[in-house]
Specification:
Length: 314
């Protein structure tokens, strides 16, 4: 039986998630781990969140306006005293025994500073509806965000001294701040995968969400910092790959939301998709999605789009 229980600090940013935050709090309390602190940084919730927080004396919490999730998390990081830090959003929750699992893993090797695992997907009622597996193959796999590498944020735990060496979250980012943080850490340290679910990521109607046009530009600019010289082959590879990803995201949105977009917006979306990577017109997968888009939006709208893209003779 382990005798060493290093202090674990859990930081939870919160804003109007009163329907779920109590489950998040209980998932920390029920870890059967004796040495932790739970810091909740609330952004000024107007729902039942504050009433829930007042019911738990062990919480370290504050409720005040902030500039967004990144600032709230950084406030929590700066208050944290634990040797190990985790970041759990107010609508997510931990799997049982997650703390003991990650402490055992970190204690196996003093050179381990960052661990992550898998996540279950849960619905509004807490029912498991899916699974997100952690995938990481080195720093380059994070630079290439258009591929399949993924570090499920709720499953991440790291040693607090990384914050002093690597720095805090980039508060100018609102969607890719975690990816940026992982990348900066990966420049100096290995990221270790634990092959088991450590947390649950909730899918619901009020969660913070964004279309590709919001999160993809943040990922693009973050990744671009690591591409090297503009005149190198590596830069060209990354540039083409990133724009290929953007092209597919655009045409997929056109297919899925074609009948909800205005005709001008839809035309622009299809046009920009082609411009971002014209070579996709030679790819079967892309053309299949384009065909599905055309079928979905109807003949009249298709003629209009083609006329705008290729001239009145189309």
């Amino acid at each position: 039986m382990r005798e060493n229980f290093p202090l674990i600090s859990i930081v939870t940013p919160s804003l109007n998630q009163g329907a779920y935050i109590e489950e998040s709090i209980k998932s920390v309390l029920n870890q059967e781990y004796p040495n932790f602190e739970h810091i909740i940084i609330d952004g000024g919730s107007t729902d039942e969140t504050i009433d829930v927080l007042k019911r738990y004396d062990h919480l370290l919490w504050v409720s005040e306006k902030d500039s967004g999730q990144s600032e709230a998390i950084n406030k929590g990081f700066k208050r944290a005293k634990g040797e190990i830090v985790g970041w759990l959003n107010s609508d997510d929750c931990y799997e049982p025994n997650a703390f003991n699992t990650i402490v055992d893993e970190l204690n196996r090797d003093e050179g381990k500073y960052f661990v992550f695992g898998d996540c279950n997907l849960i619905d509004e009622k807490g029912k498991k509806v899916g699974f997100i597996g952690g995938k990481y193959r080195g720093k380059r796999s994070l630079i290439e965000y258009w591929k399949d590498a993924f570090i499920p944020q709720p499953s991440v735990f790291f040693r607090r001294n990384l914050l002093h060496e690597i720095g805090f979250l980039n508060e100018s980012l609102h969607y890719a701040m975690d990816w940026d943080f992982w990348l900066r850490i990966s420049e100096k340290y290995s990221l270790f995968y634990i092959n088991k679910p450590l947390a649950n990521f909730r899918i619901h109607g009020k969660q913070k969400t964004a279309g590709y046009e919001i999160f993809e530009p943040e990922l693009y600019e973050m990744s671009k910092k690591y591409w090297g010289s503009k005149y190198s082959a590596k830069y060209c590879y990354y540039y083409v790959s990133a724009h290929n990803c953007r092209s597919f995201l655009m045409i997929t949105k056109a297919r899925d939301m074609g009948n909800l977009l205005g005709i001008k917006a839809l035309t622009k979306l299809v046009f920009l998709s082609v411009v971002n990577n014209p070579i996709n017109l030679l790819r079967r997968k892309y053309m299949k999605i384009l065909f599905q888009t055309i079928v979905g939006i109807g003949v009249d709208r298709t003629k209009y789009i083609l006329s705008k893209m290729y001239g009145s003779g189309a």
